[in-house]
Model the fold of this input.
Amino acid sequence: MPEFQIENTASGFASQVHREPGAEAIRSCYACGTCTAGCPVRRVNLKYNPRKLIRMVLLGMQDEVLKGEEIWLCSSCYTCQERCPQGIRITDTILALRNLAAKEGHAPSGIFMQAKLIKGQGRLYALDEFDEKKRKKAGLPSLPSQVEGAIKLVEE
Amino acid sequence: MKYALFLGCTIPARSRNYEMSARGVAGRLGLDLVDIPDFSCCGFPLKSSDGKKAGLLAARNLALAESKGLSICTLCSACTSMLAEEAHRLGRDSALLDETNRELAKVGLSYGGDVKVKHFARVLLDEVGLDRIREAVSVNLKDLAVATHYGCHYLKPSEIYEEGEDPENPSSLEEIMEAVGARSVPYDRQKDCCGGAVLVAHEQTALEMAKQKLDRVKAAGARAMNVVCPFCSVMYDDNQKSIEGRFDVSYEIPVLFLPQIMGLAMGLGRKELGLNMNVVKTKKLTEEITGEK
Done:
């Protein structure tokens, strides 16, 4: 691993993240580690460490954060966000980082696939004839396979 | 007691047993659930890649409910938090509301900012109440030992929910379980996440998270699990076999949706409750309760 050089980091990255909705409070992090201590993902995968991620953002380590795998390991359970003594919306901050990464084309393929499906049909699973048959058999009401109004609102 | 029923994407396609049992129990309790076929995805799966459009989808759904003069009753916890969060934001941020309405106008809708979003379990607690739930019970569950899994978004982020249940010390779902004659089994790390949202990025991590919980539910001696979200059900029910195989463990713990357990206590049949659709077999469990083969 290359030696960390502060001059190689993106000086504006922390400010950029700080402006994202949900990430406004990151500068008040005092690195207590409450987030990491209570994280259920961390319990099974030591690679995930929210305290480290916040610190990396504040240090301007843009590439390491946005191109790395870590931000995608958050389960969005909000445990850290509920407990942060500094009121940092940690889960929302991770989501903001994911949005920035996805905009640059960095995300697990499944994330892009889900986005494409929803923007194309207004729902994750288009209900086909087979689904409709099953719904009818179960006494459930029929639903449209695609939702036109939603597609119009979010299509690319 | 009239609510717009918000099904989301996963339930009508993959968790029809949840939908069937919720409709059945609502019927028994006099809760009127209205279908709005034009509802779309809640927006949650877009949140990781495009938060803005995720919010717009949520707002459109809120606007549709508002146009019918209804509040929203959800079944999926991810839908609950997505819609409640957007309602919370739009109710407080007039600039965002204006911006959102400019977008909604393109599809002929507008949102005034006054729709309440409640999970089905919350509607039962707040509108029906535990007394009426108790009165509707006709079958003795014989202290069925149930491990309740709250999951995350049913409770969190807590600031978006008006009910104010403490996410560090929840009790609502267990109160319902006890009202219908089941026994709540305490177990270690009850509040931990199922791992469902990690499945798309790192399967091993997600399955290991689910395993941690199944280990503890089993050790606590539970006969069944109680869930209120289709993603939690995917992790504990659909994936239980593959977790058993991958980690060389054995559970055989039926995972039921809350209204499936309630429905059993109210005398609804296996078919009406979609109990044959649960992946881990529920037949023995229902035989133990009803005595019927």
